[in-house]
Structures are given as structure tokens and as C-alpha cells.
Amino acid sequence: DAGVIQSPRHEVTEMGQEVTLRCKPISGHDYLFWYRQTMMRGLELLIYFNNNVPIDDSGMPEDRFSAKMPNASFSTLKIQPSEPRDSAVYFCASSLGGTQYFGPGTRLTVL
Amino acid sequence: GNSVTQMEGPVTLSEEAFLTINCTYTATGYPSLFWYVQYPGEGLQLLLKATKADDKGSNKGFEATYRKETTSFHLEKGSVQVSDSAVYFCALSDDGGAQKLVFGQGTRLTINP
Fold first, then answer.
1. Contacts of A58 in chain B (CB under 8 A)
2. Do B44 and A99 touch (CB under 8 A)?
3. Which residues of A touch B93 (CB under 8 A)?
4. B106: which chain A residues are within 8 Å (Cβ-Cβ)?
5. Relative to the CA of B52, which of A3, A86, B28, B73 has its CA 20 to 30 Å away?
6. For residue A31, how far is the Cα from the chain centroid?
7. pLDDT in tens, chain B (113 residues)
């Protein structure tokens, strides 16, 4: 299996622009998680899905952030409008049976 | 709520030294415990796990034993290599079946030749 795939790997954008991060989970996994990692706050869980349904989005920082999972093999995390404080590495992870497998991450820089 | 506390970093050792990274947890129920490793510029990789008390997880020379009596899951390796330089995260699962992980803050390990 190719593992969890994320795109793009790097994104540089200007404040106010819309940013869309993409994730393809491991085939057959029934949970999908979005995390954000920064030096100041460490690793934060933003939202997770079970069988494509959002279960807990209490970690989403504000309404500028939204996530969707239209099918079992694809999820997006959107930030609109983006702000410099959103600069971070965003990870997607999927799991089956309780062990999470992480993608390589998207490094987002908002200027 | 559930929480994980890790040894403060950074930790710097010489090659072939013995490694211990402490991890203690607070949880209700019977969570599974994990160690993840993050190499520079990469995502987190599962290093080892243990699902019940007294289980020992092991991989790549690393070991950790699930100690319910001391609520600990310390990571050990007998002889570290330069290639072990990374950030190590201890985590526990949400026992409620939600499959969420609660992570410690991470410990940065640097091994000098």
C-alpha cells in the first residue's frame, strides 16, 4: 500500500487567499484525522471522520476552517481566508483497528 | 480527561549510549499505548505499541512495557545510533472506541557520533 497520501507537500500563499489541503487515506481504513503541528502548540487534532462522517470538530480553530470527506478515499481541509497564524504543518492520518498511520504532511506558509 | 506527560527535551546522547525517554499517562479505562517517531521533514511513524497491561512493544531495538501500576510506558534502547535522532511522541488511545489519540508534547533526541 502507498500509505496516506497528502497534497500538496508545500504551499505558500498570501493572507486572505483560500487554501485547500488534500488527503487520500489508506484503502479500507474507516477513520480519518486531520492534525496541525506548530512549534508553539505541538500536535493538535483538528477534526476526525468515521466512515466519511465528521465525528468531532471541536479542535477546528474557527469558522475559517472546514473539512469534508465526500467518499472513503478522499478528504479536504480548507482554510478561507487564510492568515499568517495558520502557518503550520498539517497532517492527515487514517486508522483501522486503533492504530493511526500518518501522511507526510503539508507545510503551509501564509505570508 | 486522558493525558500523556513526556520527559522534557531535548535529549542529547553519544552513539551507543543507553536511551530512556519517560512517559506517564492519566486515563480512565484501559487504553492502548503507542510510541511514534518523527524524523526531520516527515510525518509521524508508528514505532511500537502495547494494548494491555504488562505487554511489551518492541521494534528496531526499541522497547516499552505497559505498566499499569505506575501508569508508565517508558521507551528504551540499549545502544542508540546517529540515525535514531528524531522527535519521539508517546500517545494513548481513547478507550471509548473513538480511536482518537492523545499525544505527549514530544521529546527531541539528538545522537552525536
1. none
2. no
3. 98
4. 42-43
5. A3
6. 13
7. 889 999 888 999 999 999 999 999 999 888 999 999 999 888 999 999 999 999 999 999 999 999 999 999 999 999 999 999 999 999 998 766 667 888 999 999 999 99
- Which of the 8 DSSP states describes residue A39? T
Helical H segments across chain A, by residue range = none
Picking from B32, B89, B100, the nearest residue to A45 by CB comes out as B100
Q: What residues have CB less than 8 Å from A89, skipping those under 6 apart?
A: A36, A37, A38, A105, A106, A107, A108
CB of A90 within 8 A of CB of A104? Answer: no
Query: Cα–Cα–Cα angle for B80, A37, B22, nearest 5°?
Result: 35
DSSP 8-class letter at B67: B
Q: What is the SS3 assignment for A105?
A: coil
A83 and chain B in contact, CB less than 8 A:
no
Asked if pLDDT for residue A54 goes beyond 70, the answer is: yes
CB contact under 8 A, A45 and B46: no
Measured between CA atoms, the residue of chain B closest to residue A47 is B100
User: Which three cell numbers mark B39?
Assistant: 524524523
Q: In this structure, are residues B33 and B6 in contact, taking their beta carbons and an 8 Å threshold?
A: no
